Automatic annotation (TrEMBL):
Sections of the chain in a coiled coil: 66-93
Annotated protein name in UniProt: LysR family transcriptional regulator
GO molecular function, a single term: DNA binding
Keyword Mitochondrion recorded: no
Occurrences of domain HTH lysR-type (ranges): 2-59
CDD domains linked to this entry: PBP2_LTTR_like_6
Record carries keyword RNA-binding: no
SUPFAM superfamilies registered for this protein in UniProt: Periplasmic binding protein-like II, Winged helix' DNA-binding domain
Pfam families reported for this sequence: HTH_1, LysR_substrate
Length: 299
């Protein structure tokens, strides 16, 4: 019989690429991960990994087993969701327990307070715990069980990477704006952005989706932005724009209450926010309740 915990490790190796990365993420030693994967190979009776120097790659059998592991782990999530629903029905006391939520900064400020207030009114026994995380960190933390639900976003020029371990439902679609201190006259996104090709730009930290969106949108317009400041908080970004420190792309949630003197030019590009969770967990009562609270906050 194949051990489910070892199947999780094999799946993580498929996602992360190295045993060292799996060990660091799951707070094990690399040798412990190697021992568990070796034991899984003995259980499977076939080589799952091919070792080349310090690197390992999955064999065809290993790749196939990862696909089966995804299906097995999804069914386990479904079982856990059904059992949680049964416990709730039998107790008659409503939902209880901890629900761990990941959210990017704009959503933490603009969406979560109202959503958590609604959740507290409907399900006072639930204990939400929020971690502010960039969407690029969400998938591994959901897979590892560190988060139960997460708000993630994607941009027109930065689509979400598919992950067979996760599922998601749409929450919000918001337009993007170009923030400047002078009105712009260009028609169309490319022409509008080109009017700022020689200006200094303000973008998020490299490695984030917001940073990639700024760079790719400008490149699509025909130039590479000269980034002067790296700032993740959109309120701070707009304050910097207001004092002439540069121009910036900001989503609608980040453009609320702009400082005096800042002009927001609407673009046709969008940012889309989704609620992500482990595949199979969509029917868990706590996940259902949180999604309902988030949608009520958007309304």
């Amino acid at each position: 019989m194949l051990d489910v915990r070892r199947l999780r490790l094999l799946r993580e190796l498929a996602h992360r690429g190295t045993i060292a990365a799996v060990a660091e993420a799951l707070t094990f030693t690399p040798s412990a991960i190697s021992q568990q994967l070796t034991a899984l190979e003995r259980e499977a009776g076939v080589a799952l990994l091919e070792r080349t120097g310090r690197r390992v790659v999955l064999t065809p059998a290993g790749v196939a087993l990862v696909r089966h592991a995804e299906a097995v782990l999804e069914r386990l999530e479904q079982a856990a969701a059904e059992l949680a629903a049964s416990r709730t029905d039998l107790s008659g006391t409503g939902l209880a327990g901890t629900v761990r939520i990941g959210a990017f900064p704009t959503a933490t400020r603009a969406i979560l307070p109202s959503a958590l207030a609604a959740l507290a009114r409907s399900h006072p026994g639930l204990d939400p715990m929020v971690d502010e995380v960039d969407p690029v960190e969400v998938a591994p933390r959901l897979r590892a069980g560190e988060l139960d639900v997460a708000l993630v976003h994607e941009y027109d020029f930065v689509p979400a990477e598919p992950d067979l371990a996760l599922d998601a439902v749409p929450l919000l679609d918001e337009p993007m704006y170009l923030a400047t201190v002078h009105p712009l006259s260009g028609e169309g996104d490319a022409a509008t952005l080109l009017t700022c090709r020689d200006a200094p730009w303000i973008a998020s930290t490299p490695g984030t989706l917001c940073h990639a969106m700024t760079v790719r949108a400008c490149q699509a317009a025909g130039f590479s932005p000269r980034i002067r400041h790296h700032i993740d908080d959109f309120a701070t970004v707009l304050a910097m724009v207001a004092v002439g420190q540069g121009v910036a792309l900001v989503p609608e949630l980040g453009a609320a209450d702009p400082p005096e003197g800042v002009t927001l030019t609407a673009l046709s590009m969008h940012r889309r926010t989704r609620v992500a969770f482990r595949r199979g967990a969509g029917g868990h009562p706590a996940v259902v309740a949180l999604i309902a609270a988030l949608r009520s906050a958007i309304r």
